[in-house]
Amino acid sequence: MAGVITRAAAVPRAPVRLWRFARKFGRSTPGRLTGIAAGLVLLSIVVGLVTSTGVQGKSDEVRDLATSAEPLSVAAQDIYRALQDADATASSAFLAGGIEPAATRQQYLADIAQATSALTLEAGTQTAGNPLETLSSQLPIYTGLVETARANNRQGFPVGAAYLREASGLMRSTLLPAAEQLYKAENARLTAEQDTATTFPIGEVVLLLITFGLLFAVQWHLLRTTNRLINTGLLVASVAAAVALLWTSAAMTAVTLHLDSAERDGSDQVAVLVQARFAAVQARADETLTLVVRGNGQSYQTDYLTAANRLGGRDGNEGLLGQARAMTKDPAVRSMLDNAIQAQQAWLTVHRRIRDADNAGQYGQAVQDSIGTSASSSGTLFADLDKNLVSALDSARAAFNQEASAADASLTLLRPGLIVLAVVIGVASGLGIWERLREYW
Q1: What pTM did the predictor assign?
Q2: Which residues contact 87 (CB under 8 A, 6 or more apart)?
Q3: Among 212, 223, 292, 306, whose Cα sits 20 to 30 Å from the Cα of 44?
Q4: Which of 185, 393, 398 is nearest to 272 (CA)?
Q5: How many Å apart are CA 72 and CA 121, to the nearest integer?
Q6: Domain residue ranges in the chain
Q7: 294: left (phi over 0), alpha (psi -120 to 50) or beta
Q8: How far apart are the C-alpha atoms of 297 and 370, rounded to whole Å?
Q9: Are 291 and 322 within 8 A, CB to CB?
Q10: Where are the bilayer-spanning segments (predicted)?
């Protein structure tokens, strides 16, 4: 009985003995070296996981800019611009009277098709549904009113102008505000994602810096305790940590610089050029509607003057055109904008001639100056202005995509490279400590 009690009492003492042994071993040099080795291996695992995950996240952010955020922003721009142009084109077609020119009709249908296609693209995103629902439900009503106006106009019925005016009112009061809301939402999303993608990953760099510092500290400790100047394993691990640190810092700096350039030379210029196109089409629609309503278009004329002033001011060097020209560093884009300014100034001159003719009762001459095919007509000058703005927009978008692609290329091989370097740090650290441990056995 006593023996059983003795053995039972000895059982709880086994963990105590194990704890004492662990404490004693931990205080010994081999124990400390073993702990250092385990810590460095664990640190290398953390480094590999954290840095590779961070790089993958950064790469996803950069790619999303070029493949999602920027195209959706452009789609929202296309909706607004296509609807504006459809309204202006419908008015121009109405002015032609009877059967409108085939080119004008095709332009109107192309605008509606472009707006519908862009709406379909936007509908596949997580964008808030209210503006999309408004556009989807009201666009068929608008096109129906335009077709009714067109049918009455072809038969010479004056009521056609009333239908066209109602259609334009729906466009301006409902469709365009919804399209503008959608554009602002997508543009805000693009800006937010640019800011996120441009952020420098301080956490990953600090972790690599700490790793390099700890490896140096361990080597210094071994130098003081063993008088061994070089530990090959720890030296290799330190070099791997230094390479990882420099590579990550250089790659992330390159990403930041490329995305800054993409914003400065790309999306920022696109935003101004888009607003310039919006103002130009708005002015064109107001100009034609002033003639459509025949004597009741003072409100449209006032809106025209506001849009024209916003577009380029009195000399073309003000407003959005002047702002866009001041922003660009590309000589080719600057030349396009110079051409756009020249067309805008010529358009202002023709518009004054149109208003003088209309006010003098020369309605036919005013219509001809507005929708005629001569090089000096308002429609031709507007088309020239818009063509140059489109070319400048395409160049700015190309600059954005080029810089975004360069930012993505900066991260090529970095993620697998960091994983390999983390493995090297862990293995080399373990082998370096093992060299010292063997001396005690």
Answers
A1: 0.79
A2: 167, 168, 171, 172, 285
A3: 223
A4: 393
A5: 8
A6: 29-69+190-440
A7: left
A8: 15
A9: no
A10: 33-55, 205-223, 235-259, 413-434
